[in-house]
Amino acid sequence: MSTIWTLAEIEGGELKGITHELLTAARSLADASGSLKVGIVALGHEIGGLVPQLGSLGADIVALADAPSLANAPADVVARVVGPFLQGQQARTVLLGHTATGKDIAGRLAVRLDCGVIADATELAVEGGKIVATRSIFGGGMWSRAVAAGNGAVVTVRPRAVTPAPGQPSRSSETLTISVADGSTTRRVETLELKQETSTTVSLGDAEVVVAGGRGMGGADKFGPVETLARTLGAAVGASRAVVDSGWRPHKEQIGQTGRTVSPKLYVALGISGAIQHLVGMRTSGTIIAINSDAEAPIMKVANVAAVGDVHEIVPALVAELSRQGVGAGA
Ligand SMILES: Cc1cc2nc3c(=O)[nH]c(=O)nc-3n(C[C@H](O)[C@H](O)[C@H](O)COP(=O)(O)OP(=O)(O)OC[C@H]3O[C@@H](n4cnc5c(N)ncnc54)[C@H](O)[C@@H]3O)c2cc1C
Fold this sequence. Notes:
Elements: E1 3-7, E2 10-11, E3 14-15, H1 17-33, E4 37-44, H2 51-56, E5 61-66, H3 75-88, E6 93-97, H4 100-113, E7 116-127, E8 130-137, E9 142-147, E10 153-157, E11 174-177, E12 209-213, H5 224-233, E13 236-239, H6 241-245, E14 266-270, H7 276-279, E15 287-292, H8 298-302, E16 305-308, H9 311-324
Parallel strand pairs: 1-4, 1-6, 4-5, 5-11, 6-10, 7-10, 12-13, 12-14, 14-15, 15-16
Antiparallel strand pairs: 2-3, 7-8, 8-9
Helix pairs in contact: 3-4, 5-9
The structure holds flavin-adenine dinucleotide.
């Protein structure tokens, strides 16, 4: 029986949310096919304690590569260790997150497996015995459906495209040990220091709610309503490229084709027109609320809730009302 493989992302000894999403996606493909198993490779140091959790989240097989030299392993080391193992398993489908880590590993792993890469899948399905990935292309203007030709594919899955299924603590899994060959963990670049960015705000990648501001805010010094609403909702702050290019906000907050792709449960767009290059970075959000003075702005057509008016009037009133209802820090 063949296996859909995934790769765990681990940080500080804990599974990152994308791992849960990948296992949910792989599990539903395996269940739909009726003939596939789900395997996950976990790589790091002293990570054996994660095995029961990986099993409960849907893995039939947990393959562990555990060694001191694998702590915080860079992408080339991951590919060198995982590649031969997956080759031995005759892996045909490997799901990675479309995250900084997953994107870094995908190409290297595909070369080792001599297979293709399907990037940024937002939906996966089994059709006629094949795994079909749906992804957005041409800056989000079109959707394409792709299947692996030849030897299979490494597929990167967009974070939050899959709703994680609840774990089943009674599920058990088979554990395999990946042997770590001499020299396979040699690093070409040594990381001297890892520093967590100190931020008082929620990070965009993890945020369930994003409040983003555009040129319609009117200036760097007029971004207060974006920050206040974000604080009230426990949200991350995002921005359009026009705002970043003007130097009002840092590039790490830019959402869109040349910025971050986000898919939060709630996306609030303040004074953003909704150019296609912006939409491609946020259109898969669960609920979209747009506040714009122009009822005809493109963002209003993709919004679930569209309010026409001045952000500087609507947002303070909204924050006051939320506060009155007991929502947020100011409540
Ligand atoms: C190759 C390429 C890549 C790009 N990548 C990105 C990207 O990654 N991300 C991105 O965002 N853009 C990107 N762009 C730029 C994109 O095309 C738009 O120019 C940009 O998104 C516009 O930003 P904006 O909506 O903030 O500004 P505008 O288009 O100027 O829109 C401002 C909006 O605010 C509204 N407004 C004005 N005043 C108020 C008010 N007081 N209250 C409420 N509403 C108000 C206006 O009605 C308008 O809709 C890219 C472009 C190219 C060519």
